[in-house]
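Exam review. A common question shows you a sequence with its structure tokens and asks you to describe the fold in words. Practice with the pair below. Do the first one on your own.
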Amino acid sequence: MIRIFICFATCLLLCLCLASWARIGNQYNINIYNGLPSNNVYNLVKDHNGYLWIATDNGILKYNGYTFRLFNLQDGLSNADIWFPFEDKGGRMWLGSIADEIGYIYKDKYTKAVFPNFHHVLYPIDICYYNDAIIFSTPYVANTYRSPCIVVHDTVFPFYNVFPPEGLLFIVDGNPMLILGKEIYRGFFEHRKIVYRKISDIKDSSFFEGHNSRSFCANYDSYVSYEKRHSNIRLLNFYTGNTTYIDLCTFIADTGPINLMYIRADSPYQPYIYPITDRYIYKIRLGSTVRLQKMFRIDSLVPVPGNDISGFYEDAVWNCVMTKSKGLYINYNSENYFIKKENYPIEDCRYVGSSLDGASYWWSATTHDLVRVKEDQVNKIHLAAVDQVNELVPINKDTCLILENKSGDFSNYWLIGGRHIVPAYIYKKYYEVSKAIPHSPNDIYTISKWGFNELKYNGRDVKEHVWDIDRYKNMAYDTLRQAIWAYTYSKVYIHNIYGKDTIITQNGFRNWGIKRLEKVIIDGYGNIFLKDYDKLVLYDPATGTHTELLQNYNLCDAGLYLYNNIIVVAGRFGVLFYKVTGFHKLSKPYLYQNIKNAYYNYVKGVSLSKDGVLINTENGIYQTPFPSDSEMATGNDSIKLHEYKFLMRYNNELYPVADGDTLRISPANRSVQFDVINPLGNGTLKFMYQWAANTSWFPLNANEINVDQLAAGKYVPLFLVAYDNVWRSDKIKINLYLVPYWWQTEWGTRIVYSAIFIVAILLVTSAVLITRKIIIAHNDKRNKRLELELKSIYAQINPHFIFNILGSALLLIKQMRMEEAYAHVSKFSQLLRAYMRSSRNKYIILRDEIENLRDYIELQQSRFKNKFDYQIVAGENIDTSALRIPSLLLQPIVENAINHGLFHKHGKGHLDITFQLVNDVLTCTIEDDGIGRDGSKAMYEKSHVKKESYGNKMIEDLVTIFNKYEGSSIEVTYTDRSMPAGTIVEIKIKNMRHEQH
């Protein structure tokens, strides 16, 4: 009873598996005609990024769903016959082939591992991880035994003759495992050496007896041996030595031979064995309990026999069948709802409309046949008198109106009922009518080359009303609001039958999110669907709002249709369905996928009836049923639609991208590349981007964007959308951050500003020092020049004075006035010494200057026999010992007053010298009551002797020098007295020097 129960349960499970997978048939074949270098596919693996790596006998390919990147001999491979790819933890794809080397592909570049002193041909098996290294075993072609090899830092260290040649070697859990006779040893790599110890004995001594296995597999903790064309499997646990025998007849339905069997794991410790027969692929779970997981019928997966299959791979994204002669089949686990209709005579026809009884009509311009299709019944109506059928419009249940374009600018109308057609003369007009919507049997709205019209028949003739003159393309009837929509790509005329008409221009379209209006459909609930050139919008006229539908589809070249409140969208991607249940109430979309154009590339026409959707394509006629209410309630379009992956390459590193990720960009490299892995990819992958939400979208140049315009140190959002011929991704946001140079950071800016400030200070200081040095040098030069000029002047003053004094002394001696002459010369010598001291200094203390003036005046008095008297008065507020005035400035003026004024006066004269200090200005007044400047001038002119006044010239030179070089301000003013005659000389000295005590 137990055996009967087990057999019954197994049969039931097989039936369930068969039922589950019997309808699978949506597949895509990749072969030498669309990307593969060979139809012989050995193996494949999906890397950590999601790329599919396909190993063939003519190279290995990297596939993202759109394009292939082939690696072969031109990329440096020593052998293009790649039978086994393996990805390590670092993302390197190691290539297994029979060659004298082993290498890997990393960042799309092949690198050869280095073999020191190695001259053998490799046959890598059991590649696995070992810490940061790679371990594999290889049977040398010249020998029968297998030896382990370890790859450390791209250098391969083979271990020759470490184990006996008669042993079986495997790599398990990153360590070599040896079966030697009845004993099991485990090896350990230590410092590039192998040490090993025994871990168990094989419990069943007959495990290897009589078992001539053609293939061996080791996985994790077990050794698996199977006879290639038989159904028995033997399992040996390395660590316990226990053995298990499995008869696959318990799980396998057919009795044919096993063509291929291999192990694959969904998780590190969950291995599965895949036996492949002529008819089925089995997935059997190994472990403590062995059971059948799944069962696939080969003819429902691929159109090849089981003996041509070289492997099977399945996961959530890729489900692939590898073959030896037909390439690779990618199966998408979706049911095939596209039923090919053979011998349908409408392939070269154009759909023109449907009648209310569910029949569709197709017009053949070549044969002039109107083809009627209903419930797989096809009838032809030959219309020899009709030139071109524009549209067939149902009038009532039994009658349709045919719009015919005659050669010229007029149209004929025909009424058809059943298989009979008669002229409809009541609607005959000289207009080229393309579309018509009947409001009643005698009231029809039409579109002609002259505009949007209404034709009314009153029993005798037809009256026409033109609502708008424009070249409209199509019409839609809003039965709920009783309005007719006539529209072009950029304009809508809404005729409210019982209200006010409305015109909407292209500016209004933009508010609906529409750029090019292609189709308008209005259902019985009042939902308004607007078909843009690449998207579908649900519009609410009450609020003016819109909702975009089917955002993950590229709806270019797709058609929009309505049947019994079911919205149908047909295009390259397949056929989509929406069930409308109320105003703005839609079911989830349900999709029949035309994956990678497996059935067709272009839809020429679509008709809807209770039988389903009839699609006329370049590849023939297909029919699909309508989904059930329960199917449309749950929807299915997201099963595979969102299984794509964004990738970003920057600085030759590849990163997965999720919405909201941040990328730090170096100023040295501002170029970013994008890629998408999409198993449903169709056509060419393209990208669009925008820098801010609700701004214009721009196409990406290939797959690369350059972010030169980014400001350093700021986060800038980049919005990105990927799309192809049928699909469009969700919008993702990537925050780009341009890493600033150190001088663009806050601290860097401070440092730069501080450096600029310091440099500025240094420059200013240097400029000041240099300027000061120049000024000092200039001042030194000026002072030397001043000293020379002063010395020159003083040299003129002293001789002039000396000559006069000596002349007086000689006169006294001549007059024999010896004592007076002695006193005169003595005082002269004292005064001369004082003048010599003054001539060496530019400034003299006022007190000393007054004493010198006294000595000088008294010498002159003795010379002129007391011809004048004098007085020198200094103001009480003047500290004569503290003020310093220019040397020898006053003496020439006093000399002029005596020699040119007082000397020639009749009678005794008087000389007054006063010093006053007001507001830090010293005023020296020298006043005499001599003959005056005019008298002196007249006297010299009368004597006809031109006498040069050295004193005046010296005074001018002294004043000029001190004002120019010393920063002094000296003003000399001459005033002539009238009564009595005389001269007043006023000397004002500003910026005086003060003696330092």
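Now try the second one, then compare your answer with the model answer below.
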Amino acid sequence: MDAAIIGRIALETAIPEASVSAVVTLLKTGFTGPFIVRYRKEATAGMDETKVRAIQDRMAHYRGVLDQRSSLTKTLSEQGRLTEELRTQIESSFSRAELADLEHQFRSRKKTRAMEAIEKGLQPLAEYFWNQELDAWSAEEHIDVFVDPSKGILNREQALEGVVDILAEYVAENFEHRKKLREMLWSEGLLASSVVPAKAGQKTKYAMYYDRREPVTTIPSHRVLAIRRGCKEGVLISSIEGDNAKAIEYLASAHIRDRESLFTPVIEAAVRESYNRILRPMIESEVRSQLKERADREAIRIFQENLANLLLSPPAGPIVAMGVDWGKGNECSVAVIDETGRFLEGARVRFTPGSGTSPAPPTAPRAESLAGPIGAVLGDAPALDKLEISSGRDEVPCPPAADAGADTETAVPDAAVPEPAPPEATASEAVSPEAAAPEATAPEAVAPEATAPEAVAPEATAPEAAAPEATAPEAAAPEATAPEAAAPEATAPEAAAPEATAPEAAAPEATAPEAAAPEAAAPEAAAPEAAAPEAAAPEAAAPEAAAPEAVAPAGDAGTVLRDLIARHKVRAVAFGTGTGARELENLLRQIVTETGSNDIMIASVNDAGIAIYASSRIAREELPDSGASLRCAMSLARRLQDPLAELVKIDPKLIGVGQYQHDVDQKELHRGLIQTVQYCVNSVGVNPNTARESLLRYVSGLNDKLARKIVGFRNSQDFFRSREGLKTAIGLDDASYRQAAGFLRIPDGDHPLDRTAIHPEAYPVVEKMAAAQGGEVRELLENREKVTSLKLDDFVTDEIGLPTLDDIREELLHPGRDPRKAFRVPKFRSDVRQMSDLEPGMTLEGTVTNVTNFGAFVDIGVRQDGLVHLSQMSNRFIRDPREAVKVGDIVQVKVLSVEMETQRIGLSMKALLGGGRRRQKPQRRVRKTPPTPREAQNGGGTGPDARNASRPDRPGAGRSREASGRRRGPRKPEGSRKPENTPAPDRNEDPASDGPAPTLQEKIAILQSKFRGIH
């Protein structure tokens, strides 16, 4: 990129131009962002990840501008219209809108009214009015010449109409004027939205936008996207409102030379025609595009931050873990994995109710009970002490958790519950087959066009805005925690696994609400193309439900799980955060308690996108002979061990921790999310001896092909003993090895530094450090005394400076340190299991599941996430919720409101923080000055009273301090007076009055005297 673009990037990102130039050069050389951030700090002046990513984003933007330039230049050259002046104008333009203006000016168009007028021969008359120069003829005589009935011009009026059409295009073709009008509309315009007449009076999730106007420059991104979606769904109408009179006056002033001339009426008519018919629609469309682009960038940024926080969730570490996944009805799939995540054993068990307890009827409407059928089965925990093994032929699919590609926006706070949709309207409110009522289990319930609408962000002034509004009982599950309780993308016919299709969904247990999303974001049923590529693979249609599954021997319920825990020495049990999570947790705790092991951890795991994983190619390769539910159980256990290694198996767009993700530019969204995953993976590091292809492909310098080579060599031959050995084993070229080596960690390798983040190119420097201490490199690791005694300035080289040496010192002190936080499990209250248990004023602990521009959604263990509005997050002013929390944080919240009808929970963090100390404004003190001679004659006073005494003509001048209300309070007893030499403290407040109330004139005099005393 040329110097001009580098300068613009430096200006837009507020980064020094030299640093921007260095990063651009490194990126063009082929280095990745993570490598530049970690190992090229000397070149970038220690630039962090955020700044490098900002430069990458702007580079991508300007690459698009350069491509647009090239395309326009090529088009004009082919048309023979490219002049040197036009080429210079194109090459000096850095705005897509300006280039689009030029392209619009020269592209071929359909026949216009101006073209028709020119064909009638009116162009010379139009030129006469355009030039505005008088000659010997009058205007009427000029017009009469062009009146020709044979050409369709019957009178002067028709001739003037044609002239106005031609001049209107002349006005519209001025590049600078269009640019100025666009700037005016952008800076002064309002985005207005209104309801379509057919929806007037109806309560929808867009009710807050029925009559709304906000400045274009300040409207939040989520409102822009909400209004656009409302227009797309036929509920809203939007427009960009500007000062039309001001715009027309600007154009008229630019084209009219003399307001008193006879040409003025025609030019004014042409200006109004040009603005109303041509310029205003064009400029409004351009401003809309710019507004959409800005909103997209903001929405993508939010998604990137939430995704990074989710990927970097604290891991439980390499422990033997068990995953338990709810299937249909009261069945569960259980999977046990070892320390490396390798599948050991699986089973499918059924919780059998005791006497007096029976499952809920399969046809019960979902809205009648918040717990649903599973809640009815599990509600009596003490009676559920038996498990039995079911046959492997009736494999239960894992719930198509409403987390595939979820968009997390909250519903309108004051919007009423929408009317139930008719049967043929299931395209807008479709739910997954297992989550629907029996009539919703028909095959057409998974039609690809069943795209659920996402709800709109709430008003910024509604702190109690919480979960979305609930739809009709047969259309949505109350547990679905986002406005769009819809089927995930994986339910499309070409993407869904057979176990998720209608035939099994029609089983009686299908009414169990296992499709509820644990987060605040339930996914929308997106178009088929939005599904994960793996989910659409032909193998997805394989009859997995009939696949045999390895199950534990039949036996007593408690014996089965206790046997698995004892034989494999299970250290942790993981379960999802969806429907029945609290009941399942209690049952697991009972069983674990019976084993006599108090050190077994039981933890809920974020199951975002788990249904997509279960039906993906990667899952089928890992467990080819098992069903989807067992794959879900294995994935839950692995997510407990290492969330990053497991979540990278899913297309990041389908994890669903963003807002309006299906409304933004999908290409830019994909690029930004992949970039985020790369930064997260490389910041943690990867062990090539245990990592899978899905994780290795994100390592800097590697790709899918090289990742397969690493796994293939590891499986067929031997483990890698060193970084250098890995290079020779799979034939890495020097460039790829240079970028990947520092991020590949071999804990038990031959070289002691291979387990650290120190790059091999810095090994000689570390060896010099060890030699300076009279020992070996191995002796420096974790030896604080030796490492801190090193003088880093002695080891500076041309390639390695102090920033890199500081990193080397930290790695020697903490070799292979994981940057993620320590693992912690939220403690849910045992007496709060569903929304009906909540009461305002309760204090609860929960996990942040999503963060948007207007607040954060928190899982408090009742299947429905609550909303902590921005105004309820902190006792200090914050503009962005991410200043207070991020995804994965465990927070304390207080319940503000519970709305059962709309399934909303209002939470507050601020209520538990205390009032906080208010910052007092500095008080202005009156500076004392020595008395003037005149003041000395009046008693030497310098205060307002002295000035009043010197002005006997002023009202109240002769009154005493007591009579004028100027007394500073009641007199203190003699013994309580301060010594005369003690300075009195400054008094900033007005003195109290204990005398007669002063008149208005006296008050004015008092104020005037006070202000005169301030110099």
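Model answer, second protein: The chain has 34 helices and 14 strands. The mean pLDDT is 74. Full marks require stating both points clearly.
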